[in-house]
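Severity: low
Component: inverse-folding endpoint
Summary: output formatting inconsistent between runs
Steps to reproduce: submit the following structure tokens with default settings.
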């Protein structure tokens, strides 16, 4: 049996989900990361990390350089908006309960937060609430920005990216 070195030539662009593939037994029909690389598939590491890794990653230094750069720029932009639009002053005037209500209202249309995130927000100080509220106000429908914003909201460790 010969192998065709042009394996990747006939593959069209398709969406793949990449993650741990060790099921403890041999499963046919699942394309592994080794195959995708051998086939010449282009895997955007930043997109993968934003969708599957960043929310639960304990340390930003474990992420790729491009993902850290993107998150760092996003955090800087959020902090800039906090100052520019005087968000801290607004949140301080509203207080904890009203700010949570405003966050809830905004997330109804753009981003569903996990119960774990809501638990953390209930215990958060006004600075954290200001950061989260500002980030949600910035959310848009670009896939990568949506996931990056979700990451910095749901994983406070990513605010150090």
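Observed output (run 2 of 3):
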């Amino acid at each position: 049996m010969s192998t065709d070195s042009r394996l990747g030539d006939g593959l069209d662009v398709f969406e793949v989900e990449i993650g741990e593939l060790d099921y403890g037994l041999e499963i046919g029909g699942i394309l592994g990361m080794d195959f995708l690389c051998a086939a010449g598939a282009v895997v955007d590491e930043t997109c993968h990390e934003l969708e599957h890794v960043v929310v639960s990653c304990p340390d930003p230094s474990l992420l790729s350089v491009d993902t850290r750069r993107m998150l760092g720029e996003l955090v800087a932009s959020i902090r800039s908006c906090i100052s520019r639009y005087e968000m801290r002053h607004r949140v301080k005037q509203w207080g904890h309960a009203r700010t949570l209500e405003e966050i809830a209202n905004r997330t109804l249309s753009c981003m569903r937060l996990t119960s774990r995130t809501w638990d953390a927000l209930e215990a958060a100080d006004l600075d954290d609430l200001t950061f989260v509220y500002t980030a949600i106000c910035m959310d848009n429908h670009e896939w990568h920005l949506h996931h990056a914003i979700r990451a910095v909201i749901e994983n406070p460790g990513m605010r150090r990216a």
